[in-house]
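To close the section, here is one more complete example, presented without commentary so you can practise reading it yourself. The ligand is copper (II) ion.
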Amino acid sequence: MTYLIAFAIIFLLAVIVIQIGKVTELASKIRGEEEVELHNNNTQGKWAVIFMVVFLVGCIYSAYYYKNTMLGYGPLTSASEHGFELDSIFNVTLIFTGIVFVLTHILLFWYTYKYRKQRGTKAIFYAHDTKLEMIWTAIPAIVMTFLVARGLVAWNNIFPTLTDQDKFVEIEATGYQFAWDIRYAGADGKLGNKDFRLIDLAKNSLGMDWTDEHSVDDIVLGGTDKIVLPVDTTVRVRITAKDVLHNFYLPHFRVKMDAVPGLPTSFIFKPVKTTKEFRQQLSEYPEWQVPADPNDPTGPKRWETFEYELACAELCGKGHYSMRRIVEIVTRDEYNVWLASQKSFYMTNIRNTADDPYKGKKLFSFEIKAREQELKTEFAKVLSDSAITNTILLKHVFFETGSDKLSDLSKHELDNVVKIMNERASMKVELGGHTDNVGDAAMNQELSQKRASSVLNYLISNGVASAKLSARGYGQNNPVESNDTPEGRDKNRRTELKIISK
Ligand SMILES: [Cu+2]
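Output:
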């Protein structure tokens, strides 16, 4: 229907134009051709001058009217250190191009009027003037050289080479249809290696390499989480994409860089205003004092709801708009608290699963520290008067398969047990060995007894009085989970510590 109406309109317009043409033709036959042409030239020349005035006034008025909504003017000054320099480059370029724009338009329209066809005038034949050519080649060349040179200096300032000694926060942004994965380096400050061959959409969508220990504490933010960054700190963003071209654009920080599949790019910037400070700056302008939601006049003001944002500035597909993310700039202390509260991707999704290359082979120092705290709390619980259980699972005690030989990793857990045992002179405990139901029950009984004794021997040889310890094998009799699954059997093979007397 819409097409039909559009077609009808175009058809009618064509008919009108043809009819006007016919009328003009008839009129010129009556008045004489030349007379009409001179009259038309006069009118069109005058209209050209009127158009020029209206057009230039309109341009200048709109630039002035919208100045507070444009980046770099009014309230929207740069929120990053290098942004001020970029804004100044844009302004200088705007001044030069603005002057040329106004001048050429005045000349264009004024000459259209001045040199319109008049009775008794003749065109001058003006073929060449070397001096004029020199002038209009030299002036743009000098101006362009100045602009380009300034741009190069700024480019070098914005992209310094950061060394390991420089203190900076590094994050990685991976664009895909239609979101960003934001990866933080975690406590070690280093992003781990990635390999596209390791990409597994369900378990490892970024292709992080778990054999690189820098990966272990890396944090990956979910699709809608706020990107939090510290103020007054250099931030290096590694930018990459998984499918098509995207563009990492932080307008308030004057950061804009293509995200290209297979070609990592990066941008360095330093935020200089926290989100709160920027809101304060906006609050001084009347246009930011209005309610954020026009339907709710008593609700928060526009400046109160302001957020920095990340946008994809490449038209990458129909869900393109949903790549918007909120960026929050906070103080250094707030950032540290936030970072510490984030869980590493590896620890939440990979640790001790089949994909974990360190499963049963390695404990990380942060895990050992955390386990020490946890063990202390567990002991405090079973020793308190309101205790509901008297048993602690020794989570980090491992044996070699089918043997009673303790693995090296068990040392951390057992050394902590030694420490706690020696702090309480009267405490007596029983070490209990448990197995799954694989194999012969009598063999399992024997193995569990041997394993419990191994733990007992380790504790004695590390300074616990033998009178405080006993060891007992329970075989496969006390499962905590079903023996039908590998995970269940894994849980059933365990060593427990039971408090006999406090
Ligand atoms: Cu995109």
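Once you have examined the tokens, check your reading against these statements. The chain has a mean pLDDT of 86. The radius of gyration is 38 Å.
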